[in-house]
Amino acid sequence: MKMKVAVWTGAVLCTILLAFNTFIYMTLNHRLISLEENSLANQVEAVAQYQASHLDDERNGSKAWTPATGFWLSEAVRQDQRLVLLTPQGKIIAQAGNSGIPISQIISNFEPSPSLRPTAHTQTWHLGHKVYMSALVAVPNESQSRLLGYGLLVSDAAGVRTYMNTLLIILVMGSIGAVLLATVAGYLVSALAVRPINQMIALVSRIEASNLDERVEVPRGNDEVARLAATFNRMLVRIGRSFEQQARFVADASHEIRTPLTTILGYAGLLKRWGKDDPKVLAKAIDVISKESQRLHELAEDLLTLAGLEATVKQSGHWVHPDRVIQDVIEEMQTLHPELHFVTRLDNQHAIQVPPIHFKQVMHNLINNAVKYTSAGGQVRIKTVDGPNWVEIAVADTGKGIPKSDLPLIFERFYRVDKSRGRKEGGTGLGLAIVKELVELHQGTLEVQSVLGQGTTFTLHFPLSEGRDKEARPMA
Ligand SMILES: Nc1ncnc2c1ncn2[C@@H]1O[C@H](COP(=O)(O)OP(=O)(O)O)[C@@H](O)[C@H]1O
Ligand SMILES: [Mg+2]
């Protein structure tokens, strides 16, 4: 990661610098050459003008033109230049300046032009490994009617070369330095950036059930790494909480299983010792053992339901008509409890999207509680009604009610208001926990109202979805 960032930074900068430096180098090179050419042209044009105005052959009567004094010519050139005056045929008639500069090749290459224009023609020459620049100008007579000859100025371009070479070295060295610096900086910056991530990796590989309360250090600021660290810590909190819940659940479940088991074991012992001789002990033991086994069986069923719920993915396409299921459940209950009075007002028209087996379990648990916690002669009322986009189902009883302080707790697993009584009556304490999970699984809501000594009402709401009309009455 760090290496990658560093290499990428270096590579990108390298490309940018290469393009930029090439551009600078080319532009500057071109500009310097054209400046030099211009100055050569100006120089030679001045010489040509001087010649034309001062040494006209018509004035001194000779056929050939004679150049100005050697002194003047040598004044007109620099150390690194060579100036020659030529006849129209290219013969040298005068020269000045650095004689080391070769001109024969330049002269043999130029084509005498008939033009009398006093503008210089410039050119660059590569002779051997050296570079020269030349400026050639025609020298006409004063009346501009006849070509007297040419002025040729040649200069050694070594100055420009040296300058450009130095520039090249500076650019190359500068670029290498910048790329190296950027690479190192990229490495350091990314090392700084990935440090918290490395910390996290170390922590994650260390985490086990025993140290879920460890936390990652959250770096200051609000960048991605800080957010990742904070999210990670929140995840740890959630995992820790659900881990605790899980542990508590296992402890509670074990406790619930142990109690009937202990009873069963105790009575089995009694049975073994005295059962054969004492018919009273025999009857009692069989009775208790079968009751407690029944309890264990119920507990196992409820636990399995809850465990299955956690893995249940919400299935779509399962519809149920609440009224029909409710009638079934009441029928079963009425036969078991003829002493209770069931009152129903079922006005629901639409199906809801809940698997029938889940809905039946919800209604069974609620009605079963109502029956269980209502004494003989009491009433259990069940009501359904359609809202604009929901179905309301209420299960009310005239039983003993639930104390206010217990109301928020009754949906917790294994919670019973009256522990000893609850056990005697055979409840597992899981019924309402199952109801709550099922209702929430299918986007329903669940409320409870209770007045101690007067009765309890559980109210459910399930949403009606778009497909409701297709699934409505005809099903019932
Ligand atoms: N209709 C009701 N009337 C009075 N108390 C109730 C009613 N329904 C539930 N409860 C209380 O809530 C507790 C939890 O209910 P539930 O989860 O079904 O467990 P249980 O197996 O004890 O019925 C019960 O033990 C009981 O104290
Ligand atoms: Mg119950």
Structural description of this entry:
The protein folds into three domains: 2-165, Beta-Lactamase; 224-310, Orthogonal Bundle (Helix Hairpins), CATH 1.10.287; 314-475, Heat Shock Protein 90. 53% of the residues lie in helices and 17% in strands. It contains eleven helices and ten strands. Strands 2-1-5-4-3 form a five-stranded antiparallel sheet. A five-stranded mixed sheet has the order 6-7-8-10-9, with helices on one face. Helix 6 packs antiparallel against helix 7 and helix 9 (356-372) runs antiparallel to helix 11 (431-441). The longest helix has 53 residues, at 2-54. The model is unreliable at 56-63 and 470-476 (pLDDT under 50). It binds adenosine-5'-diphosphate and magnesium ion. Adenosine-5'-diphosphate is lined by residues 365, 369-370, 373, 397, 399-402, 410, 415-418, 422, 427-433, 456.
The domain tally reads 3
Largest sheet: 5 strands, antiparallel
Secondary-structure-based class equals alpha+beta
Bound molecules: adenosine-5'-diphosphate, magnesium ion
- Give the termini separation: 65 Å
How big a fraction of the residues is strand?
Answer: 15-25%
- Number of helices, where a helix is a run of at least 4 consecutive DSSP H or I residues: 11
Which value, in Å, is the CA radius of gyration? 54 Å
What letter string, H or E per element, gives the SSE order?
HHHEEHEEEHHHHEHEEHHEE
User: Which residues sit in consecutive blocks of at least 5 with pLDDT less than 50?
Assistant: 56-63, 470-476
Overall shape: it is rod-shaped
CATH architecture of the largest domain: 2-Layer Sandwich
What's the mean pLDDT score?
85
* Extended strand count: 10
The CATH superfamily of the largest domain is identified as PAS domain
Major β-sheet strand ordering: 2-1-5-4-3
The helical percent reads 40-55%
Q: CATH class of the largest domain, please? A: Alpha Beta
CATH topology of the largest domain: Beta-Lactamase
